[in-house]
Specification:
Blueprint: H1 3-25, E1 27-38, H2 48-51, H3 54-61, H4 66-84, E2 95-99, E3 105-109, E4 119-127, E5 131-141
Antiparallel strand pairs: 1-5, 2-3, 4-5
Helix pairs in contact: 3-4
The chain binds coenzyme A.
Length: 142
Amino acid sequence: MTEVNEREADLLRVGRWLQSWSAQLSSEVCGIGVDLEEVVRWEGPLRLEALFTPAERRYCEGKARPARHYAGLWCAKEAAFKALSGKITVNLRELEVVHTADGAPKIKFLTPVGNVKPLQLHISITHTSTLAAAVALYTHQL
Ligand SMILES: CC(C)(COP(=O)(O)OP(=O)(O)OC[C@H]1O[C@@H](n2cnc3c(N)ncnc32)[C@H](O)[C@@H]1OP(=O)(O)O)[C@@H](O)C(=O)NCCC(=O)NCCS
């Protein structure tokens, strides 16, 4: 590669970087939500199929202590509901928590309403042996 070509490639990389940053900067925060749950509430017999999708139940049942994960997933849905509250009406049963390959949780909308492109919902979940919590941030691309 000549010096001119290298410079051109550098400029292209910087351009792509600036483009991705400007896309992120042109989002506004429209809502925030938080939720906290006692893990014990999710132990014992519950109608889990009414509250969680088959994929969510498979995820939680695959863990050593499913109740902590059920509590965390439920917190994520309630936090998401709060973040969207007053702007977009969703039923908690229309939300599914999925995980990326590295384990990060994401909200998937099961109905078209939430799948509007500029809408983005970011969530984070944590749990101890007794408590689970989640926060959600609703952003909208300008
Ligand atoms: C991902 C990580 C931060 C989770 O923290 P933790 O204290 O073990 O567990 P928490 O209870 O706070 O969080 C668990 C939740 O984190 C979320 N999570 C898992 N991986 C994640 C990731 N890559 N990004 C964002 N969130 C993640 C999940 O929602 C999980 O709950 P769920 O499986 O029920 O949905 C942790 O496992 C980790 O990998 N830490 C990095 C440690 C490290 O690099 N140490 C270097 C030596 S100091």
